[in-house]
Structure formats: C-alpha cells, structure tokens
Amino acid sequence: MEDFRVLKRSAFSKYFKLIKENMHKVFISYYHKDDEYYKNRFDELFGHLFIGKSVEPGDIDTDVSTEYIKRLIQEDYLKDASVLIVLVGQKTYCRKHVDWEISAAIGKEVGGHSGLLGLLLPTYPGYGENKYDPDTIPARLNDNLKSEYAKLYKWTENGEEMKRWTEEAFENRINEADSTDNSSLQLQRNLCE
Question: Which of 2, 94, 122, 168 is 20 to 30 A from 33 (CA-CA)?
C-alpha cells in the first residue's frame, strides 16, 4: 500500500507541472539603465503568472560582436517566448537592443512569431495624459500598432489585466500573424544615451 503523503505530493507535482506548461513564456524588453525598477516590479507583481525569458544585466558580454549578441538573444531567450512585452519609458524608443529584440520576436526565422504588446511606464512623457507620441516609442512597436498586430497599454499592477493583455497578444500571434510589420531596418546604434 502506498503512503498517502507520497500520492498527495505526486498529485501536487503533476498539478503544478500542468499549470507551468500552460503559462506563457514572456520576454520583457526594456532599457536597462532607465527602466530596471519597472522590470523588477513587473517580476514581483507577475512573476507567478508567466515564465520569464528576459536577458538580465550581466547575462551577455557586451564586448562581443553585434551579430553574436543578436544570435544569442534569438536562440537562448526569444526562440520559445510566446509573448514579448516592451516596457516603454522615456528613452526606450532609441535603444538598439530593444529594436533587435522586437525584430527577432516577430521574425519568422526565430521559430515563429511572438505576440507583442507595449506597456507605457509612468516615466514615459505624456503618461498622465493618456496618449503617446509615435516618435517616442520604439519604431518597430509603432509599426505593429498601426498594423494592429500589437497593442499598447498603460502600466498596471493588476494581475487580471496583465493576464488578459498577454493572452490577447498571444492570440494575435496566431490570428493576426499576417499583420506583423518587420520591414524597418534594424537600428545600428543607439539614437540617444
């Protein structure tokens, strides 16, 4: 006869494995220098809802070639991400790595499209006015807002909203896959510091 505690533990293990298998793998793209607080806050608030796939500071040696960095991000972080969330702060629009991450996430060559959504951070100019300037968000994100592949929302700390928005982005990767716009040339340098 089996010990009830072993059966109970086994049932819980299977239950949590099933939950984890149904969680979205989410890559967070952000400007590390300015938006680290919000990336950490996102993880605190929603880390239990998603499987994180993001590049953390120090994960990648910045002294290696650009092509190597792009390939590493694509193969090790983005390849199996189901949704890319861009945290849009004051200078996110001008960062080449954010552009590369968006490009790779919606590029077919990485293994399929990731869903795409942007979150305007409280540090974003015009945040309190409920509007955005297309010139101050990442251009590739804006292209995909115009094509209706991506959505843009204001920062939230509400888990139900975040789950719903992420699910919408995930569904768009299937239902709106033909709407992706990855036609812009990738940024070769940062447009601001």
Answer: 168
> Residue 17's pLDDT is what?
42
154 CB-contact burial (10 Å; exposed 0-12 / middle 13-18 / buried 19+):
middle
Quote the mean pLDDT of the chain.
83
Classify residue 129 by its DSSP letter: G
Q: Is the Cβ–Cβ distance between 97 and 33 less than 8 Å?
A: no
pLDDT of residue 108: 72
Count how many residues are written for the chain: 193
- Position with higher pLDDT, 52 vs 178: 178
Q: Are 114 and 176 in contact (CB under 8 A)?
A: no
pTM comes to: 0.83
CA distances from 58 to 36, 38, 111 (A): 13, 18, 25
Give the burial string for 88-109 (b: 16+ CB within 10 Å, else e): bbbbbbbbebbbbbbbbbbbee
R_g of the chain, CA atoms, integer Å: 18
Residue with tokens 């297309």: 134
| Calpha distance 74→114 (Å, rounded) | 12
What is the domain partition of the chain in residue ranges?
32-179
CATH classification code of 32-179 = 3.40.50
